[in-house]
Design brief:
The complex is a heterodimer. Chain A is mainly alpha-helical. Chain A contains 11 helices and no strands. Helix content of chain B is 84%, strand content 0%. Chain B contains 11 helices and no strands. Chain B is elongated and about 75 Å long. The N and C termini of chain B lie far apart (46 Å). The chains are: A mainly alpha, B mainly alpha.
Chain lengths: 252, 253
């Protein structure tokens, strides 16, 4: 409780310094805006009803990218984890592609898919893909091979083996990597919007930047960071609950 | 024998197949070369920029942004991690800020950096520094907590003070974590620099990509991305991977 109060006090103190720093002449409100102005800006966006639309646009892009990236990532992960030939052919490529500065590919995707949501979905999916791919792949590789061997001895093969042994094993890893991927999916959508869009939170921020309106940049950024932060904390709680359940699974 | 060779060459075959598919798609009207360019056009531009040396100053620009930010971010991250470790009250107080810093890829702060520090070197250095700082701080904070208590206690028994402990126990132990953090952060550092360049710059690889985007020259975008990818991979394979391999021998504590 005391820690909570102290943290709150720290945040309040930082906000006060931010608000009153221009009075000391150390900073220019043109550059640092002020918390009151930022709050006012967010309030205005919210009251006008614009904010919800922008949030829905960006979230929709992130979610679609998450879904597509997860499906493809899981598919390729299963393929590489279960099929040695596919692993030999694809794994080196995946490792190299994973190291590339993928968010920098946004202009290319915008050139291919246009200014609409599809280019952001593609960017977001391309980021999520690798998280899930490596999650599933290492999930299938990890742990004892005993379970698989036992299932085989008992006559499990083909679809049954996949459904009862491999998929449950992979599923836990998908959940774990999804938590990491959510923040990145969201950020990819926002960065895609920076580089060419006509709506969404990234568009709001970059519009503020072009207008040299720091208040708008701060306000947009506050909304983005709040959403990502809440998602992150929520998913971490979920993962912790999930790991208890995984503890049971591990005993099988 | 043949099948073994085939499986060794299969990654190259996959790449070749993708390149051929790309080429055929643009040739037979499945994709518009105005937006997709062609493999040979991109290869020609790569060769031309390499031959004329046009790419060298652009690469150096991005390199110096990443270099300065990287060193600064690593040092700052180390300093704060040690501060958090030795003064737990500060760590506890700053916890919400650290969570915030850790919640999302820091590259989304690029417009901020450009507005605050201008379109020159400053904004990219600041953003790269922030990215590297966050990764170093997190990795090292975990690392310092895992230093073996027995070694610390033994050193204490032998009369080591806080300064001796830092110098002879914690710093060597931290080094391994710093190196592994450096390896994780290199990709993100380049990404941050390039994204920042995309949003406002006068030079660098991101500037080439941005120029290609505004002039609808996909071969510029692709060539810029090609060089960016080559740099990142080279730094990882040539410098950081061997460093980390060697570093793992230092993991004595």
């Amino acid at each position: 409780m005391r820690a909570l109060i102290e943290r709150l006090l720290l945040v309040v103190a930082l906000l006060l310094i931010w608000q009153f720093l221009p009075l000391t002449g150390l900073a220019d409100p043109f550059f640092i805006s002020s918390p009151a102005q930022v709050a006012d800006q967010i309030w205005q966006w919210g009251a006008g009803g614009d904010l919800l639309g922008h949030i829905l646009t960006t979230s929709g892009e992130a979610l679609a990218g998450l879904l597509i990236g997860a499906v493809f990532g899981a598919g390729f992960g299963l393929l590489c984890g279960l099929h040695p030939a596919a692993q030999k052919a694809l794994l080196p490529l995946m490792t190299v592609s994973n190291a590339l500065p993928r968010l920098a590919f946004a202009p290319l995707l915008i050139a291919w898919f246009g200014f609409g949501p599809s280019s952001k979905i593609a960017l977001s999916a391309s980021v999520v893909f690798f998280f899930i791919f490596f999650g599933v792949y290492s999930g299938l590789r990890s742990g004892s091979r005993l379970l698989v061997a036992n299932a085989r001895v008992m006559g499990g093969r083909g679809a049954a083996l996949l459904w009862h042994v491999h998929l449950p094993k992979a599923f836990l890893w998908i959940v774990a990597s999804l938590r990491l991927a959510v923040g990145y999916a969201f950020a990819a959508a926002v960065i895609g919007e920076y580089l060419g869009a006509d709506r969404g939170l990234g568009y709001l921020i970059v519009y503020g930047k072009e207008m040299l309106d720091m208040t708008q940049v701060f306000a947009g950024m506050t909304v983005v960071v709040t959403i990502v932060g809440v998602l992150d904390v929520g998913l971490r709680r979920l993962a912790r609950a999930g790991s208890r359940w995984r503890g049971l699974e591990g005993r099988l | 024998m043949v099948s073994r060779r085939l499986s060794a060459a299969s990654p190259a075959l996959v790449v070749l197949a993708l390149l051929l598919a790309w080429d055929f798609a643009t040739r037979f009207g499945l994709a518009d070369p105005r937006y997709l360019s062609r493999p040979l056009d991109v290869a020609a531009l790569v060769w031309q920029w390499t031959r004329t040396g046009y790419i060298v100053p652009r690469m150096l620009a991005t390199f110096s942004e990443v270099g300065i930010g990287y060193v600064g971010g690593t040092l700052a991250g180390m300093a704060v991690a040690f501060l958090f470790f030795f003064v737990p009250r500060v760590a506890e107080l700053c916890d919400p800020l650290v969570v915030l810093l850790n919640a999302a890829p820091r590259a989304i702060l690029a417009p901020f950096a450009v507005l605050l520090f201008g379109i020159g070197l400053g904004s990219k250095v600041a953003l790269v520094m922030l990215v590297v700082f966050a990764i170093t701080l997190l990795s090292l904070s975990t690392g310092l907590k895992e230093v073996d208590r027995t070694i610390v206690d033994n050193a204490r028994v032998m009369g080591a003070g806080r300064a001796d402990l830092t110098r002879h126990v914690y710093l060597p132990a931290a080094l391994v974590w710093v190196v592994s953090a450096m390896r994780i952060s290199i990709g993100q550092a380049f990404t941050a620099a390039i994204v920042c360049e995309l949003l406002g710059s006068t030079d660098g690889l991101g500037w080439i990509i941005a120029a290609g985007q505004s002039a609808v020259k996909p071969d510029w975008i692709m060539t810029g991305l090609f060089f960016a990818s080559v740099i990142v991979l080279l730094v990882d394979i040539v410098i950081l991977a061997p460093l980390e391999r060697r570093g793992s021998h230092w993991l004595v504590f």
